Amino acid sequence: MSDKFDIIVIGGGPGGYVCAIRAAQLGLKTACVESRGTLGGTCLNVGCIPSKSLLNLSENFNKAKKNFFNQGIEVSDVKLNIEKMMSNKNKSVQVLTKGIEFLFKKNKVSYLKGKGVIFSPTNVVVYDQGKKSSYSAKNIVIATGSYASSLPGVEIDEKNIISSTAALSLHSVPKNLVVIGGGYIGLEMGSVWKRLGAEVTVIENLPFITPGMDREVSNEFQKILTKQGIKFKLNSKVLSIKDLGSEVKIEYQSNEKNIKETISADKTLISVGRKPYTEGLNLDKIGVKRDEKGRIKVNKKFQTDVKNIYAIGDVIEGPMLAHKAEEEGIAVAELLAGQSGHVNYDVIPGVIYTSPEVAYVGRSEEQLKKDGITYKIGKFPFLANSRAKVNNETEGFVKILADSKSDRVLGVHIIGPHCGDMIAEMALAMEFGASAEDIARTCHAHPTHTEAIKEAALAVDKRPIHF
Question: Can you tell me the distance from the alpha carbon of 348 to that of 339, in angstroms, rounded to the nearest whole number?
Answer without folding.
Answer: 22
